[in-house]
């Protein structure tokens, strides 16, 4: 029975998707003559009005049927308007405007129906995923596809009706339950995490409280995957200091620092991204927790590795190249090349960081503290001095100390 109902809904959905596009096309091209019989958008919408008794039998589509009937009336009225008088011209303009407005309403009604059906399907899939089910693989694949569709839908921008549907259905709590359920596959949990991230982007003011009060952050950290850390980093950027405060109060800073020791390079790199974001938004307690976990020693070690290096050397090479290029050029030519040279410098830096993700990582961390939002000026100076002091204990040679300290002192020029 459920399978038959699903197929029927899919048929209606296919028709409505095509008609939604037709409505959108009608709005996008209002200059075209809507009275022409070969107008595909008008033709498609009027055909639906003719067959509305069979296709639009769902009571929730009653308003759509009303809009289609009104559209038919407007088109017929426009057909009867003829002549070249000012009055006829104004009538045509008014009717055309009304048709476009009705097309907007039709598109909105169709999207609302699609959203209702989709949210209903998503909730059923979230509830229906039972480990003992003989169709577990099929149900898992269905849920993953629905979660990806949900991410795409909320990424289209804020929609109040969609938000009401999400809140009424308790989608956030359902996604969180999937995320914390270690019995589910990593793919389902990761897609649930991306869906939660999508809701924060959709409307941070509404959903941020649920992130801070629930188990989302703890679950993301415990998963320890590149996808979960990508979501965590994004959430820190979106929610800022309140989220870092939550991480610190839950004593999760050591776990995040631990990602820098991972054997998985992607986890290491994304862990470092999280460290940089915490450095930018973290208050005194969070930075102290990172210092206590030997963040300076760990970053010096990463900078010393094959994936490390010194960005200051890249800058010096660029300076020498620019000196050579400038010789013999006029002031006018130098001015023309300024924007091009800046682009080249940025490109070289980005290319170098792709190959050496931990280049000057300690200096980059120190810069985040210096320019960030979480610390007072006095605290920034104090932490900078503490970092400079700890560099001596973490380095192997005086030359290494001098290089890294110079980068930290002049980090804003990297």
TrEMBL record:
It comes from the Eukaryota. Residues 318-349 are annotated as: Disordered. InterPro entries: ARM-like, ARM-type_fold. Gene3D superfamilies: Leucine-rich Repeat Variant (1.25.10.10). This is Uncharacterized protein. It comes from Chenopodium quinoa. The lineage of its organism: Eukaryota, Viridiplantae, Streptophyta, Embryophyta, Tracheophyta.
């Amino acid at each position: 029975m459920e399978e038959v109902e699903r197929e029927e809904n899919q048929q209606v959905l296919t028709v409505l998707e095509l008609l939604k596009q037709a409505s959108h096309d009608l709005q996008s091209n209002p200059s075209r003559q809507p009275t022409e019989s070969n107008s595909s958008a008008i033709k498609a919408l009027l055909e639906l009005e003719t067959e509305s008794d069979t296709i639009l039998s769902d009571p929730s589509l009653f308003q759509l049927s009303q809009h289609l009937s009104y559209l038919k009336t407007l088109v017929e009225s426009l057909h009867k308007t003829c002549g070249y008088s000012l009055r006829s011209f104004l009538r045509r303009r008014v009717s055309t405007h009304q048709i476009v407005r009705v097309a907007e309403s039709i598109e909105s009604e169709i999207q609302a129906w699609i959203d209702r059906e989709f949210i209903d399907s998503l909730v059923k899939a979230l509830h229906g995923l039972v480990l003992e089910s003989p169709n577990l693989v099929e149900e898992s694949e269905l849920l993953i596809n629905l979660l990806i569709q949900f991410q795409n839908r909320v990424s289209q921008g804020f929609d109040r009706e969609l938000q009401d549907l999400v809140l009424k259905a308790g989608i956030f709590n359902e996604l969180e339950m999937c995320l914390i359920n270690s019995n589910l596959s990593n793919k389902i949990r990761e897609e649930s995490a991306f869906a939660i991230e999508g809701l924060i982007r959709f409307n941070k003011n509404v959903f941020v409280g649920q992130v801070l009060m629930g188990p989302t952050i703890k679950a993301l950290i415990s998963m320890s995957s590149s996808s979960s850390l990508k979501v965590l980093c994004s959430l820190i950027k979106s929610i800022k200091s309140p989220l870092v405060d939550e991480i610190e109060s839950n004593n999760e800073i050591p776990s995040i620092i631990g990602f820098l020791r991972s054997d998985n390079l992607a986890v290491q790199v994304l862990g470092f991204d999280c460290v940089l974001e915490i450095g930018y938004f973290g208050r005194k307690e969070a930075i102290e927790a990172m210092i206590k976990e030997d963040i300076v020693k760990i970053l010096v070690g990463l900078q010393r590795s094959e994936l490390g290096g010194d960005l200051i050397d890249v800058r010096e090479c660029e300076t020498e190249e620019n000196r050579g290029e400038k010789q013999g050029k006029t002031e006018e030519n130098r001015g023309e090349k300024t924007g091009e040279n800046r682009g080249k410098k940025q490109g070289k830096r980005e290319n170098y960081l792709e190959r050496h993700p931990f280049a000057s990582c300690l200096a980059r961390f120190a810069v985040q503290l210096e320019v960030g939002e979480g610390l007072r000026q006095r605290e920034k100076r104090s932490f900078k001095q503490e970092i400079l002091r700890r560099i001596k204990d973490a380095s192997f040679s005086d030359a290494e100390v001098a290089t890294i300290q110079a980068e930290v002192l002049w980090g804003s020029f990297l």
